[in-house]
Design goal:
This protein has 316 residues and is an alpha/beta fold. The chain folds into three domains: 1-90 and 179-189, D-Maltodextrin-Binding Protein, domain 2, CATH 3.40.190; 94-173, Periplasmic binding protein-like II (D-Maltodextrin-Binding Protein, domain 2), CATH 3.40.190; 191-303, ACT domain (Alpha-Beta Plaits, 2-Layer Sandwich), CATH 3.30.70.260. The chain contains ten helices and 15 strands. Strands 1, 2, 3, 4, 5 and 11 form a six-stranded mixed sheet that branches. A five-stranded mixed sheet has the order 8-7-9-6-10. A four-stranded antiparallel sheet has the order 13-14-12-15, sandwiched between helices. A hairpin with a 7-residue loop joins strand 13 (227-234) and strand 14. The protein is elongated, with a radius of gyration of 23 Å. The chain starts with 8 loop residues before the first strand and ends in a 7-residue tail after the last helix.
Amino acid sequence: MDSATTRRIAYLGPPGTFTESAARLLDGSDDAGALTPFGDVTEVLRAVSDGTADLGVVPIENTLEGSVTATLDALAFDTDLLIQGELELPITLVAATRSGVSLDDVTHVYSHPVPIAGCRRWLTSTLPEAERVPVASTSRAAQLVAESDGPDLAIANALAADLFGLQIVARDISDRPGNSTRFVVVGHHIPPATGWDKTSVVVFIETNRPGALLQLLEIFAERDLNLTKIESRPTKADLGEYCFFLDIEGHLSGERVGDALAAVKRTQRDVKILGSYRRSGARQTDEADRIRTDDAAYRDAAAWLEAWRERVGDGA
């Protein structure tokens, strides 16, 4: 992002969330005045939609618990905003209480549902009798514990624990090492191709019948396009009716991706583009070169076919 211009950025708050850290990294700025916390994912997206904010940052996937369904559903059904970028952030969770409260005293554990699930093993072995209370964010959990008079505990990051004056009673409590969360920045535009891109869509299949998903996937396989994500979610219309979220390697402006999406639009009930943007992680030169070569080959094949079509009727 261009950090020369101050942008109003909405993020999942309150201050101290992992999402705030991601927002600062995605924006490339330390201007805290440009960041505004909101209570949940829907409020973040609404702020961008109505112009209160220029961009929004929300979590979309965790390595342990998978997709953040609130974000997927909001992007698919509740807004026309587009994903403009993504960032993967390592997640290190701590257990924090008010000063003087020990682990033996804890009766309630507060956190976002994803960290609660990601620390299930630690909670079962350390606090088997404590009630687990899901809240909107890890920072909100720290805030609630700080304001509480009871023997409560928050699962949060160290930043939130420090921000709300809590003592850390256990560190690195995730069930598995290497936990990370993918965050996306949402706005109104599609950024230009970089050569290391991803296109996200949600597809509504024509009918629920044997082979319907295979027909959809073959469209991408025939064009040598790699799908890095395939996930089904209820359409919210009829029981048993599902749509499919797909992440496709490549940019919307590329020949193969564009042709594949046109084929999906032609053969399926509907397709909604959620964004086409730079992939997270370091760009792999060999992969990017392969994609450019394949697109060039695709253009060459199309030109070859067109040349033959121009000969139709010659000499008749």
